[in-house]
């Protein structure tokens, strides 16, 4: 089967040769129709030899490209219809597969294209030799022996037969004339210009090409006779030397000024990377220098080969170095005023390039440049060390003292203010969230080391490095390994933050201290507060400047021992102390008394001075509320005895008795209103504010993953108490109204004491005039009363006593009426301001105070 196909191919080739020889226009008519059998046989053998050779065209075997080329050529020649017909035929030709189809379709198209071009040339020159140039050779030129015997003749060169002959040496004569013409037009030879260009590319002035400071570049003087094309090419090639001078100048200046803050380690790494690139550049120039030793041949047959260096060849050699040198020059200009992370980020932006050559070059450069920066990241994340002598890192330390000499104040602010991000030094390939995690991880290590005196973080860092698939050794991180960096930071942050919270909860009992503050500063320990209020009340009623803080500390200790607080941890109880605030003229002990909680390192990171000041504000408010409640309870204790309903008042005049009953009823009604307000307000504060906020804070403490989460949870807890307790900025008018109400209630307590003191005196005076049996009863009730001062009602007559009692009760009724009226107005203002408050819980306070809608019905228009 293969023999049949081969024979068919040979027959087709023979027919093709026959047709080509038959259409020779220079041959006689009969010769054209019937070619010489010898010529036909020789041409056939030569054609077979060409087809059986391994010569291939210097094009890619792409059938679609050749078809597109043919179609485009037909279209440009104005043969649009033929182009469309060809496209249709090609589609049918390309789609045919299977038996009878042609596998090597592109070769068929290429052959047809070449034949078409040969015919076009033959029609223009009417030379049949161009149809198939070597088909007219005789047998001697294609025979093996004659070919071997003539290989040394001029027509043969490197085993290839040159068809065109030049018996008169016209080409050699033309070459000599061209040489003379070149010598006349060029005063400077090309070899010298090539050497000068190489000198210029090394920053050295050549014989003709020199650096012009005014023009800031290498120039070839105009007085030398050189063709314009050569001058232009020299100027373009010398651009490489100008770029080289810029890069080398930057390296020299930076290394001369190192070590300074303006250069830094990242700048030094950039200089080292650029110097390595210049070393490769020097190697290239050395290779080119060796090629300049060979003379440049003139235009001849041997000019296409040979190891020589011309300006055009030099331009080809300089393509890649020019690209790299331009990039380095751009980086030098960009990074001249930058350092550290800012420099690395700027170089990273230039690496975002679509050219693979530029991208790879910038990537290899960035690996060198970012090496110091990634080493800083590694040491900070795994060791907590901030080794940044030249302020290049994107994390800045605000603490200037040595670790061994860090003060208590510095330790308190170490977490919040000790370290911060320097956004100007943050490289663009490190995102802001990743930078925050890096900052927090290093801060956690330093917090454990400095404030907690803990060394367990080292094991956590080693475990993190192992889990991330890296090591703790220098150089384990580098540019382009962003995923590895994020993985390492995530693992280190997770383990170190967990260890930090374990230390805070277990070793320093953070939760227990928070609970202690709630119980003692926020008055959550009811029995302790009651004992303290009862024991210290009389002392605090004295002027503030007469009260001893040591005596108050004794009362505090007594209250602790008398309540369940005595079972708390002694370390916690020792932190609860008495604090006397700044005194003003006329202040009583109630106004300046306060409790404080001593939070030492590392607890003062959470309980800072500003935080404790907020706790003091809350304590003062709660203490005032408890004082008002205590005053109302004291008033009730004063009003409770039944002595006022004694039979001794039976003999009083009806008017005085009626006035007494009205005054007592007025006092009792006002007490009920005040007690309703204070009780519901205290319930709201203690349960709906403090307990709810504490429950939320406890849940957030359990969910906290790092110290920042813990600080945020505590800040939210404290702000929630402040806002709900009317202590926020938005509730300041309501807060002032509330304190006016508190002062009015305390004033009411004073009036109650005055009223019942007068009633007790009236009872004592009335007992003087009673029968002996009634005197004994009355004496039992008044035995415990202190002796009355001179000038009291006891020494007066019964008529005068009745008159004075009526006046006293009338005045007390007026004063209580005024207090009741003022209280109603103030309460109305307070209740009217509650609905406009932004916090939703304050609206629930209004619901509690007016759950029977008494006040709403009393003032329906408000």
Automatic annotation (TrEMBL):
GO terms for molecular function: gamma-tubulin binding; microtubule minus-end binding. Residues 771-796 are annotated as: Disordered. It is found in: Cytoplasm, Cytoskeleton. Its main location: cytoplasm. Residues 774-783 have a biased composition (Basic residues). Keywords: Cytoplasm, Cytoskeleton, Microtubule. Residues 194-505 form the Gamma tubulin complex component protein N-terminal domain. Residues 512-855 form the Gamma tubulin complex component C-terminal domain. Pfam families: GCP_C_terminal, GCP_N_terminal. GO terms for biological process: cytoplasmic microtubule organization; meiotic cell cycle; microtubule nucleation; mitotic cell cycle; spindle assembly. GO terms for cellular component: gamma-tubulin complex; microtubule; spindle pole. PANTHER family: GAMMA TUBULIN COMPLEX PROTEIN, GAMMA-TUBULIN COMPLEX COMPONENT 3. Belongs to the TUBGCP family. This is Gamma-tubulin complex component. It comes from Linum trigynum.
């Amino acid at each position: 089967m293969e023999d049949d196909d081969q024979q068919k191919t040979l027959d087709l080739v023979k027919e093709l040769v026959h047709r080509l020889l038959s259409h020779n226009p220079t041959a006689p008519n009969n010769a054209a129709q019937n070619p010489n059998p010898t010529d036909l046989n020789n041409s056939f053998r030569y054609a077979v030899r060409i087809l059986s050779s391994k010569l291939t065209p210097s094009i890619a075997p792409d059938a679609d490209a050749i078809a597109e080329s043919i179609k485009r050529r037909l279209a440009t020649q104005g043969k649009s219809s033929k182009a469309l017909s060809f496209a249709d035929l090609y589609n049918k030709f390309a789609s045919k597969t299977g038996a009878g189809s042609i596998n090597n379709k592109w070769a068929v198209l290429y052959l047809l294209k070449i034949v078409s071009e040969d015919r076009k040339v033959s029609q223009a020159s009417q030379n049949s030799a161009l149809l198939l140039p070597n088909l007219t050779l005789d047998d001697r030129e294609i025979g093996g022996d004659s070919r071997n015997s003539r290989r040394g003749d001029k027509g043969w060169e490197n085993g290839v037969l040159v068809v065109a002959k030049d018996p008169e040496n016209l080409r050699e004569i033309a070459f000599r004339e061209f040489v003379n013409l070149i010598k006349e037009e060029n005063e400077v030879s090309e070899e010298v210009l090539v050497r000068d260009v190489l000198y210029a590319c090394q920053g050295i002035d050549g014989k003709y090409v020199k650096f012009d400071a005014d023009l800031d570049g290498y120039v070839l003087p105009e007085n030398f006779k050189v063709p314009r094309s050569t001058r232009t090419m020299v100027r373009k090639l010398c651009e490489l030397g100008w770029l080289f001078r810029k890069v080398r100048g930057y390296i020299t200046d930076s290394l001369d000024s190192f070590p300074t803050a303006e250069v830094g380690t990242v700048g030094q790494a950039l200089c080292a990377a650029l110097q390595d690139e210049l070393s490769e550049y020097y190697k290239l120039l050395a290779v080119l220098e060796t090629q300049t030793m060979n003379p440049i041949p003139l235009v001849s047959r041997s000019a296409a080969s040979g190891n020589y260096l011309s300006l055009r060849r030099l331009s080809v050699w300089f393509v890649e170095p020019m690209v790299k040198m331009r990039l380095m020059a751009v980086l030098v200009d960009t990074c001249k005023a930058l350092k550290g992370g800012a420099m690395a980020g700027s170089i990273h932006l230039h690496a975002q390039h679509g050219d693979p050559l530029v991208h790879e070059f910038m990537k290899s450069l960035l690996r060198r440049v970012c090496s110091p920066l990634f080493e800083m990241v590694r040491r900070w994340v795994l060791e907590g060390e901030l080794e940044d002598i030249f302020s290049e890192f994107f994390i800045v330390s605000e603490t200037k003292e040595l670790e061994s000499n860090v003060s208590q104040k510095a330790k308190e602010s170490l977490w919040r203010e000790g370290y911060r991000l320097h956004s100007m030094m943050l490289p663009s390939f490190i995102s802001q969230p990743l930078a925050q995690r890096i900052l927090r991880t290093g801060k956690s290590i330093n917090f454990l080391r400095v404030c907690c005196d803990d060394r367990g973080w080292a094991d956590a860092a080693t475990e993190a490095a192992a889990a991330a698939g890296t090591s703790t050794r220098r150089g384990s991180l580098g540019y382009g390994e962003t995923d590895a960096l994020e993985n390492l930071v995530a693992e280190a942050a997770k383990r170190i933050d967990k260890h930090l919270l374990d230390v805070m909860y277990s070793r320093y009992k953070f939760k227990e201290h928070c609970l202690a503050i709630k119980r003692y500063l926020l008055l959550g320990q009811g029995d302790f507060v009651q004992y303290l209020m009862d024991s210290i009340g009389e002392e605090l009623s004295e002027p503030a400047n007469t009260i001893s803080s040591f005596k108050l500390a004794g009362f505090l200790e007594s209250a602790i021992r008398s309540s369940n607080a005595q079972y708390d941890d002694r370390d916690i109880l020792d932190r609860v102390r008495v604090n006397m605030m700044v005194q003003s003229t006329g202040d009583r002990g109630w106004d300046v008394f306060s409790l404080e909680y001593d939070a030492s390192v590392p607890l003062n990171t959470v309980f800072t001075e500003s935080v404790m000041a907020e706790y003091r504000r809350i304590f003062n408010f709660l203490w005032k509320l408890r004082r008002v409640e205590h005053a109302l309870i004291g008033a009730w204790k004063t009003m409770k005895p039944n002595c006022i309903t004694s039979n001794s008042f039976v003999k009083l005049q009806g008017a005085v008795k009626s006035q007494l009953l009205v005054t007592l009823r007025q006092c009792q009604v006002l007490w009920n209103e005040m007690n309703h307000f204070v009780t519901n307000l205290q319930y709201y504060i203690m349960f709906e504010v403090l307990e709810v906020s504490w429950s939320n804070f406890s849940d957030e403490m359990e969910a906290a993953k790092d110290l920042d989460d813990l600080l945020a949870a505590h800040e939210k807890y404290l702000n929630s108490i402040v806002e709900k307790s009317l202590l926020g900025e938005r509730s300041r008018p309501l807060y002032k109204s509330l304190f006016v109400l508190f002062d009015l209630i305390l004033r009411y307590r004073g009036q109650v004491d005055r009223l019942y003191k007068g009633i007790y005196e009236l009872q004592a005076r009335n007992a003087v005039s009673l029968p002996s049996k009634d005197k004994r009863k009355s004496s039992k009730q008044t035995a415990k009363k202190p002796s009355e001062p001179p000038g009291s009602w006891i020494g007066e007559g019964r008529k005068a006593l009745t008159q004075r009692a009526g006046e006293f009760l009338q005045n007390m009724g007026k004063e209580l009426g005024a207090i009741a009226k003022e209280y109603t107005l103030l309460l109305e203002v307070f209740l009217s301001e509650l609905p406009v408050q932004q916090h939703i819980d304050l609206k629930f306070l209004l619901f509690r105070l007016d759950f029977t809608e008494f006040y709403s019905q009393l003032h329906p228009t408000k």
